[in-house]
Amino acid sequence: MSVALTVEFLGGLDAIFQNQRKHKVTLDEASGKEALKLRDLITYITNNMIENENDIPVFIQDGTVRPGILTLVNDTDWELCDEEEYVLENGDVISFTSTLHGG
């Protein structure tokens, strides 16, 4: 089974994703594995979408989305959707918005 999603990188995060805000992503479920979860998407993003490994700490810290990055599942804070345990569904829109600002 596969899941087709839209992934958005906002608030300056697009700079580490080829300056592209919206990406269409299809994740394939490994045979015999349970349903795809948001943690699988985070792993996919880290392994396949960030080209410069020096940019990984901008997005990931301690194996999860870095504090200061607002994560939304279909416009709902991921904290209300079981965070990394959220089971992905076709058509989901997952948004990552940086609230971190340099200065």
TrEMBL record:
Entry annotated with the keyword tRNA processing: yes
**For the modification 1-thioglycine, which residues carry it?**
G103
Tell me which Pfam families the record gives.
Urm1
- Please state the protein's primary subcellular location: cytoplasm
Q: Which GO terms describe its biological process?
A: protein urmylation; tRNA thio-modification; tRNA wobble uridine modification
Task: Kindly tell me the pathway this chain contributes to.
Answer: tRNA modification; 5-methoxycarbonylmethyl-2-thiouridine-tRNA biosynthesis
Post-translational changes noted in the entry: C-terminal thiocarboxylation occurs in 2 steps, it is first acyl-adenylated (-COAMP) via the hesA/moeB/thiF part of UBA4, then thiocarboxylated (-COSH) via the rhodanese domain of UBA4.
InterPro entries in UniProt: Beta-grasp_dom_sf, Mopterin_synth/thiamin_S_b, Urm1
Record cross-link Glycyl lysine isopeptide (Gly-Lys) (interchain with K-? in acceptor proteins), residues: G103
Keywords of this entry: Cytoplasm, Isopeptide bond, tRNA processing, Ubl conjugation pathway
Record localization: Cytoplasm
Q: Which GO terms describe its cellular component?
A: cytosol
Similarity comment text for this entry: Belongs to the URM1 family.
What function does this protein fulfil?
A: Acts as a sulfur carrier required for 2-thiolation of mcm(5)S(2)U at tRNA wobble positions of cytosolic tRNA(Lys), tRNA(Glu) and tRNA(Gln). Serves as sulfur donor in tRNA 2-thiolation reaction by being thiocarboxylated (-COSH) at its C-terminus by the MOCS3 homolog UBA4. The sulfur is then transferred to tRNA to form 2-thiolation of mcm(5)S(2)U. Prior mcm(5) tRNA modification by the elongator complex is required for 2-thiolation. Also acts as a ubiquitin-like protein (UBL) that is covalently conjugated via an isopeptide bond to lysine residues of target proteins such as AHP1.
Q: What is this protein called?
A: Ubiquitin-related modifier 1
Originating organism: Hanseniaspora osmophila
Q: What is the lineage of its organism?
A: Eukaryota, Fungi, Dikarya, Ascomycota, Saccharomycotina
